[in-house]
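Build the 3D complex.
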Amino acid sequence: MILTITTTYRPATDLGFLLHKHPDKVQTFPLPFGHAHVFFPEADEDRCTAALLLDIDSLDIVRSKAQGRKMAGHYVNDRPYTISSFMAVAIAKVFGTALSGHCRAREALPDQAIPLQAHLSVLPSDEGEPLIRRIFEPLGYEVEVQKTLLDPAFAEWGEAPYYAVTLRAVISLHRLLNHLYVLIPVLDNDKHYYIADDEVAKLLQHGKGWLNSHPERETISWRYLKHNSRLTQTALSRMAYGSQAGSSPEEGPSHRPVPLREQRIQTVLDVLKASEVSRILDLGCGEGELLRHLIQEPVFNELVGVDVSLATLAKAKDRLHLDTLPERQSRRVKLWHGSLIYRDRRLEGFDAATVTEVIEHIEPALLPAFDRALFEFARPRVVIVTTPNREYNRLFESLGPDTLRHADHRFEWTRQQFTDWAEQAAAQFGYQVRIQGIGPEDPVLGSPTQMGVFQRK
Amino acid sequence: MTVNIPELSLVVLIGASGSGKTRFAQQHFQSSEILSSDACRAMVSDDETNQEATHDAFDVLYYIARKRLERGRLTVIDATNVETRARHSLIALGREYHFLMTAIVLNLPENVLIERNKIRDDRHIPHNVVHRQLRALTPSLSRLRREGFHQVIMLSSEDEIDGFKWKRQPLWNNKTHEHGPFDIVGDVHGCFDELQALTGKLGYRLLRIDGRYHIEHPQNRKLIFLGDLVDRGPGIMEVLRLVMDGVDEGSALAVMGNHESKLLQKIQGRDVTLSHGLRQSLEQLDQEPADFTKRVKDFLDSLVSHYVLDGGRLVVAHAGLPESMHGRGSARVRNFALYGETTGETDEFGLPIRYNWASDYRGKAIVVYGHTPVPYPQWLNRTLNIDTGCVFGGQLTAFRYPEKELMAVPALKTYFDPIRPLGTRTESESVNLQQEHDSLLDIADFMGQKRIHTRLIGDVVIPEENTSAALETLSRYAVSPQWLIYLPPTMSPAETSTLPGILEHPREAFSYFHTQGVSHLICEPKHMGSRAVVIVCRDEKTSRVRFGVSEESTGIVYTRTGRKFFTYPELDSQVLERIREAVERSGLFTLLKSDWLMLDAEIMPWSLKAEELLKEQYAGLGRAALMGFDAAETAFSRAQERGLALSELAERFSGKKARVEQFIQTYRRYSWPVRGIGDIKLAPFHLLASEGEVHSGRDHLWHLDMIRRLSAVDPGLFQDTKAVQIDTNDQKSIAQGVKWWEELTEQGYEGMVVKPLFYIARNSRGKLVQPAIKVRGREYLRIIYGPDYTADDNLANLRQRFVGTKRRMALREFALGIEGLNRFVDREPLRRVHECAQGVLALESEGVDSRL
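Done.
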């Protein structure tokens, strides 16, 4: 809500010249989502502080054109009160000249490093204090972070994801403002307008001279560009020398690469090829990752992806380029909306079905329905089911003892649980099942993924 | 001459070009009944003479013909049809839909045709074309019956054509005008004593006057026999005599069974093996005079395969009948009705394994049938087999329509040994046939646009995109379909108030009901928790037998979107057990004569389900705002010390801060930590249903009275819902209601719910009135509209909100909810219940202002 910038440079009141604001005036500027007020709580020779106060009405944001999707859904929202991307917009609007490094009255001063202190009253951070430090400390700031409880009446709710942050450095004002302009939205991680192509240009412009040497430049670009991989890729490759163009930000640059996924696909592909099948169902196809690989194999004549989410199917259609693929190719692939806990006559008569990383998303009470729909009614000759091996979770540093790998997982099975389920289903519906692991095998805990290959008797 | 053409006919006009088919068709049939090849040519190519478009034109013609035949509409094909091949395809089409084939041949001499073609002004057909057509047609004229036409009408001169008249003739099986009441009797197989006992029990008097039976019933009920009257049993001739006399005098109906068919063949002199009890029939027939045999032969010959009764709501057939065959007449229909359909495999007793047509049955009509003995009748998808194997020592069963009750008498002895044992005769303690079938629902019943008929407001139409969205929710988050009987409707707020500083006020709710002609209202406090539907069963057996669930449990608690309420299994079972105990001790199971009941309730605290929302949105806002305001205050006071003119701004911000503090106070009220069951409160306000009854016919006083019995035995868990009655004609009463709302909201309640005293209320035009209107408190609305909503300009903006869409949704969801409950209580197939729940979820996926 309020950002203050303090200097102890002498004469400190030069801050007024730098910001193009008279220290003895209270000024108000209109913004698309409310108003910005600028005034100076302190202004003498030794110390001068400028305050930028945002006066935002949540109902105004809802009405304004600048609203983002998230805002529209939530009328009760913290963003009018935090140092959010609204603040970045206000900086550009109210301190535009200073941001660009100009000062007519004191021509040399903008580039001069002076002792500065910025106080951000309510800085959000979804990854807590460490993220704030990782982002500001490499830029030479002394960072002071003040934490509070979310609500003292409910201590069990823990720490608030908002921090009162003070940054201190001897630095030029326009550099400080550029840092804030880029990094406030990065911490906000929830820009209030849709991402446009010119955001890359803005990022490069305001990040000039510091971003490409920042160790967290990937995280910064990824979050600034609203997790848009194409734009992030562009931004990183356009950053000057020293950048690692080409690294995949698909999962977010801060996460480790996931070769397990590819191993899983390769294993499934190998089983399918060895089974001499040509009409294949991919049940719970998601965005079509497996299908994309199956399409490459001309021996597979008919590929049908089934998913319960229409939104996901639309993405799959895009990612598989079904609209632009040559007709002979696209004719082999179909995407159907369906659900695995209902009987579906469209799914009868296929050679094989793959159900990769799907059953763990089904409520346990509905699993018997899934078993019947798949093995009793769809009844393909070959069924391949993969699911996480819970025992292996211990080897993932980021997972707590009782945490599952994904928030939507309803369960994760140990090898014994998976074997029990698979053997019971096979016996009940007349299949033979073979179980194997996928991924690096730990002598005690097994592989990260487990796979059951069912063969109809 | 006037000919009769059966109502389910595919009429094929046959005649060369110029024979006047089109004019003939237009003269005698409705234009919508005629499918003309010329018209189809024009449709696809803009030129009705374009022979090159013939193939595409016939594609269109066949497509439309199929749709009409599927729907059972008489259809006339106006094309030359002179080629055998063309007629052959039409006959195949008719067969596919069990239609009767009628050929009308306009058989004019070549010279007449040529003359006619000359004077046609629309087109000129060359002589050689007409000649070729006749050469193809003439030799086949005598073969038309053999080709497969049931009826051939030959019009061989212009006079005959001009004199043609026809009448639409209902099929023999069409008894839609007979509305009952009926008593439908299963396979008798000569068990006359039992038949006599059963008819007596059903209230019939059988009189014998001059050697003939007269069947009388004080309510003029009619007996319907499902066939297999003969063979095996000891009193075959007496059974026949009774049924024949009854059919003759119009007090009974009978359809043919496979045993009648075989007996008829034998009497007609064909060579059939004397197995399956035919010998008994023949031996007993031998004792009778010859004219009796003649009578039996004529009777058997007159029997039809099935009847469609009561406006199409009831179908009777010996071995059952799929919907596509109802009311149709063909050899295949007859075969199915007599023998059923078999898979081609046999079971361990060497008997054919039957295709279970009933499990695929989706028709609206009830189908009552027999043929295969079962231990006791069980509904499956509105079909019922009532052959309980009397002759094998079982029972003789009757189904009473429209009462849908069963009545049976036991066999006096085993007259014939069954090949396959009859099985146990008691209803087992496990799931029934319908539940077994319903344990896996078919997705086809839940996709695409849905039209759900409700008893309260007629059809509710749900667009495809909403159905799809609901299917996803159901698949990913919901409890088992077996539990998901009911989802509560959304509730509309009162219209916007015009009082200063107030957005919602009880006066608008009272006046809404008053203008709808509902003056007797009841107000209840709106508990601030999370909505929950609770199903409690007396024991695990009840949840298995009545609900068909496979999980071991005595009930469930789920949210208004169908998710399991308690995510910790331990808490879940503790709460359920505590509720079950309370219901048991309160005597409600006994009072309601039910082993289960369903409650509509609110569970507190709100934070139990909504902790994430409270933390992230409400507490987050509060914390962020206070941090910001504190920093701003510091800056203000420093600046003011310097003499800057900031008082207006500072005041404005302190006003904002005060409103945020009120906001924080409000959300804190609805939140407390839950460490165990002791921290949970359950406030039921509707007793939705119990065995045999949906309690929507009761007023809210009854509901609250029932619920008070629960809080009386377990006040620790159950929270009472107080109530105040309002008479909208009485200003004093209205003022009391307003005062109560003020008190409630001051006490921290979310607000008040205003309902008609009766659960279901209609206005003077018979339209359903909102079942409830909420009036939320001024402070509660702060967490809905944001801390600053009470500021004047904000309030002015918010007053423009519109409640119409929300109200329409509330009514439709209410109607669907009540419909689902009724269907469950009526023991309808699960898909019929499930579609109502899906409907509510689907409507909820519609984007409506979530703050309303």
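Chain A has two domains: 2-194, 259-456.
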